[in-house]
């Protein structure tokens, strides 16, 4: 299993970004044996994409659930009776992957393409949590926008 090194991304920030920290911990705690494999891509500061290789699964056999800061992806295949395999090298097993999401990260959508499940995530920080400039010598707030 490959470990992703996010340390180059930390150089641009003071402290650490909780999202990357949680993703690193998730890969260390994952007990599903690396199945199915997945990638996590950062498109920009607030948009991310998880891509999972789910070849052989139909959309109806996949279930995505977000419960607070936890994203759960399940794949369930029904056993096909009457098949007598001489050799079976294609993994046909159920799976469950859990991803711990950072605060204010939600699932924006999901799609299937060529055996890959794409899950788009967006971080929407509430207006009250966004940084604001304070004018020196006054009590007026200056909007960053």
TrEMBL record:
SUPFAM superfamilies for this protein: HSP20-like chaperones (SSF49764)
Membrane-spanning residues: none
Pfam annotation, one family: HSP20
Top-level division of the source organism's lineage: Bacteria
Key words of the record: Stress response
Domain SHSP: 29-139
Family statement: Belongs to the small heat shock protein (HSP20) family.
Name of protein: Heat-shock protein Hsp20
Species this chain originates from: Vibrio renipiscarius
Taxonomic lineage from the root: Bacteria, Pseudomonadati, Pseudomonadota, Gammaproteobacteria, Vibrionales
């Amino acid at each position: 299993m490959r470990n992703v090194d996010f340390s180059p991304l930390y150089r641009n920030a003071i402290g650490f970004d909780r999202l990357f920290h949680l993703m690193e911990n998730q890969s260390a705690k994952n007990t599903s044996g690396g199945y199915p494999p997945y990638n996590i891509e950062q498109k920009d500061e607030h948009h991310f994409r998880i891509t999972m290789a789910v070849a052989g699964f139909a959309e109806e056999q996949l279930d995505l659930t977000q419960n607070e800061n936890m994203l759960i992806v399940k794949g369930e295949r029904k056993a096909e009776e009457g098949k007598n395999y001489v050799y079976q090298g294609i993994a046909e097993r159920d799976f469950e992957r859990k991803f711990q999401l950072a605060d204010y990260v939600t699932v924006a959508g999901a799609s299937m393409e060529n055996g890959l499940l794409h899950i788009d995530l967006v971080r929407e920080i509430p207006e009250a949590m966004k940084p604001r400039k304070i004018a020196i010598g006054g009590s007026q707030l200056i909007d960053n926008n």
